[in-house]
Design a protein that fits this description.
Elements (H helix, E strand, L loop, with lengths): L2 H6 L2 E12 L10 E10 L10 E5 L9 E8 L5 E9 L2 E9 L4 E9 L10 E11 L5 H9 L2
Antiparallel strand pairs: 1-2, 1-8, 3-4, 4-5, 5-6, 7-8
Length: 149
């Protein structure tokens, strides 16, 4: 990695929580279910070039409901693009965020199964958390690290 690459590299951390819950008395689900985690990446990773993306399942893949997925990429300005998708039966929501360095953003996506949806009847799902992008090093920061404050 060149010095120029080191000066432009920064990180992203996605803390997430997916919940699946009953929201009607005759729900197919009797209790709440949750899955949580953290995703960490650096812009220096090989996949992070404009036009390429990396994806992560946020809900155990052996369970069909709900479907929760996040896709990360980088744009031509070295900003992270993050697309969340949450699906519960036929109900589906997508949200895309563009994040520059030194950003902290909370997010939330909610879906409710339709009344005709036999697989997910009477349930809802939420995907929420916080995204934090790191500081992009610059010459002043580098000099401070080398020479001290």
């Amino acid at each position: 990695m060149s010095i120029l690459d080191r000066l432009s590299t920064y990180s992203i951390e996605i803390e997430w929580l997916v919940t699946w819950f009953p929201n009607e008395t005759k729900s197919i689900l009797s209790d709440h279910r949750m899955q949580a985690g953290v995703i960490l990446h650096q812009t220096s990773e090989a996949v992070f070039v404009p036009g390429k993306e990396v994806g992560h399942y946020l809900w155990p893949t052996e369970q069909l409901l709900p479907f929760a997925f996040v896709t990360l990429g980088i744009d031509k300005y070295d900003n992270f693009t993050v697309t969340f998708e949450l699906q519960l039966g036929a109900a589906r929501r997508r949200k895309t965020l563009i994040l520059s360095p030194e950003t902290t953003v909370p997010y939330m996506i909610n879906v409710n199964a339709g009344s005709n949806d036999s697989a997910a009847f009477g349930t809802g799902s939420s995907l929420y958390g916080v995204i934090t992008t790191g500081q992009r090093p610059n010459l002043l920061n580098l000099a401070t690290r080398i020479l001290g404050p």
